[in-house]
Write a structure and sequence with these properties.
The chain has 10 helices and 2 strands, in the order ααβααβαααααα. It is mainly α and 314 residues long. A two-stranded antiparallel ribbon has the order 1-2. Helix 9 packs antiparallel against helix 10. 33% of the residues are buried.
């Protein structure tokens, strides 16, 4: 009966996450259908995706400053790290070999996610210099907050058990107090070895993640250098170097590679993580198309060989 209840709890959480990802993917896919009858709908969805330089500056209604991007990564770092620590503690006290293996895989995925959001927070504070007039739609802002709350949860396969473990620990702490709590002993090798012994596909996924992670860092550095002179905060130039030589939004391409790496590292068997990846691809493809269109309108000499986000394809 206990196992049935656990499965029901996991199913409920997974169902909510899958519903959320599907609700985000579906309108984007509809908007990308090349039909004139969908023009108005496409404009509405594109308006939600616009931000910064590609957003019309004539109206600030229902918008927030683009520097609010930092809120995403503060939430992401705190939430992902909290999930990571609790999942790590939960994995350390498990005795079931089959479940333990799956939970340690979640720890591995959350470690990768933490590395991603920590870097994004650093870049938002120290690399990016947002234009004072740069804004984004409030719906896009709320979507970002949802994403960085739901994405770590989607990577954590045993979320209900982890939450129950954390709740029980907090309740015990409140009742007994710190001095009465049983001491928790951590064996360093007992923590490290399960991470090292991940399956082959997990390490391939980690390699793919690292490839995207490094290129996104390079592309963000290029974008950051374009705005080093604060007196030219409103000026725009064509970025050059790294994957910018192939597409207009290589940082979005790198993000797709990063989440593709997480998908591969998970074993490609969890439908929730597939939906997370599909949302990333759909959302960034739409945003990249808007950015590419803006570049073509802004610069007469824009490199003709560059596409929006996928080299030689789209």
């Amino acid at each position: 009966m206990i196992e049935v209840n656990k499965l029901a709890e996991m199913g409920t959480l997974s169902g909510f996450l899958r519903l959320g990802w599907a609700a985000g993917i579906f309108p984007i896919l509809i908007a990308m259908i090349p039909s004139s009858s969908l023009h108005s709908f496409r404009q509405i969805i594109s308006g939600y995706a616009q931000r910064g330089k590609i957003m019309q500056s004539s109206s600030t209604r229902f918008t927030v400053p683009q520097k609010f991007f930092g809120h995403f990564y503060v939430v992401a770092v705190v939430w992902t790290t909290l999930l990571l620590v609790v999942t790590w503690c939960y994995a350390n006290q498990l005795r079931s070999t089959n479940l333990q293996s799956k939970v340690w895989q979640s720890v591995f995925l959350l470690l990768l996610m933490d590395a991603q959001v920590l870097r994004r927070l650093f870049e938002t504070i120290f690399i990016f210099k947002y234009s004072p007039s740069a804004r984004m739609h409030i719906f896009g802002y709320l979507t970002g907050l949802f994403f960085y709350t739901a994405a770590p949860l989607s990577l954590c396969c045993t979320s209900p058990e982890v939450f129950k473990f954390a709740t029980n620990w907090i309740e015990e702490f409140i009742v007994k107090g710190k001095n009465q709590m049983p001491s928790t002993k951590f064996n360093e090798w007992g923590i490290i070895i399960p991470l090292i012994r991940q399956r082959w596909y997990t390490w391939i996924g980690a390699g793919l993640f690292s490839w995207g992670w490094v290129h996104q860092r390079r592309c963000h550095a290029i974008l950051g250098m374009l705005r080093e002179n604060k007196t030219q905060a409103e000026a725009y130039v064509v970025p050059e170097g790294d994957w910018f030589n192939y597409v207009s939004s290589p940082h979005y391409l790198a993000e797709i590679v990063i989440y593709g790496g997480l998908l591969v590292a998970s074993g490609c068997t969890d439908f929730t993580i597939w939906l997370l990846f599909a949302f990333v691809v759909a959302n960034l493809s739409l945003a990249a198309a808007e950015t590419h269109r803006w570049y073509l309108q802004k610069f007469d000499d824009y490199p003709s060989h560059r596409l929006a986000i996928i080299p030689f394809v789209y």
